[in-house]
Design brief:
Blueprint lengths: L1 H22 L2 H15 L8 H5 L1 H5 L3 E8 L10 E4 H14 L2 E4 L3 E8 L2 E13 L7 E14 L2 E12 L2
Length: 167
């Protein structure tokens, strides 16, 4: 009687172990962190003042204490260069309160290369930032080259370089 259940139970344990091994691979963990960062950054028009004010706090756990941004010239000049996590959180909270919406589709990750506690991530996101005056300083595919670092056991964004192309 017990032999009859041994093969299905063994198969189930083998499949569960294989899935667990795959799920906790550093590349998979980092891919989930990247996706979670962009999901946390979304602001929908229906969000109230409190929800909008917490957007900065929502992205804070994904950011290194000090970050570097290299963006295209133009309306994003204020974010270029080294920034503290607190200034990025404050700026994002302000943007979330003042914009009509921030829409970021789940990222398409092209490459993850991990070397110790540092990782290079190449990804693309479809993003739109709509301001109250109906201008959209961001509206297209953002091509990102990011550096993530493992600090205190968690992957955090340390730097990013991007450029935008049309859809």
């Amino acid at each position: 009687m017990t032999r009859r259940y041994l093969i299905p139970l063994s198969l189930l344990l083998l499949l569960g172990g294989g899935f667990g091994w795959w799920w906790y691979q550093p590349e998979r963990v980092l891919a989930r962190r990247v996706a979670a960062l962009f999901a946390a950054a979304n602001v929908v028009p229906e969000d109230g003042t409190i929800a909008r004010g917490t957007r900065g706090n929502a992205i804070e756990p994904f950011l290194a204490p000090n970050l570097t941004f290299e963006g295209p010239d133009g309306e994003t000049d204020e974010i270029n260069g080294p920034q503290s996590r607190s200034s990025v959180v404050s700026l994002y909270s302000y943007l979330a309160k003042e914009c009509r919406r921030i829409s970021i589709q789940p990222p398409e990750i092209d490459r993850i290369a991990i070397s110790g506690d540092e990782a290079a991530v190449e990804a693309r996101i479809d993003a739109v930032i709509e301001l109250p005056n109906e201008r959209s300083p961001v509206d297209g595919i953002q091509h990102l080259s990011m550096t993530w670092r493992k600090i205190d056991g968690k992957w955090v964004l340390a730097s990013t370089r991007w450029h935008e192309t049309g859809r």
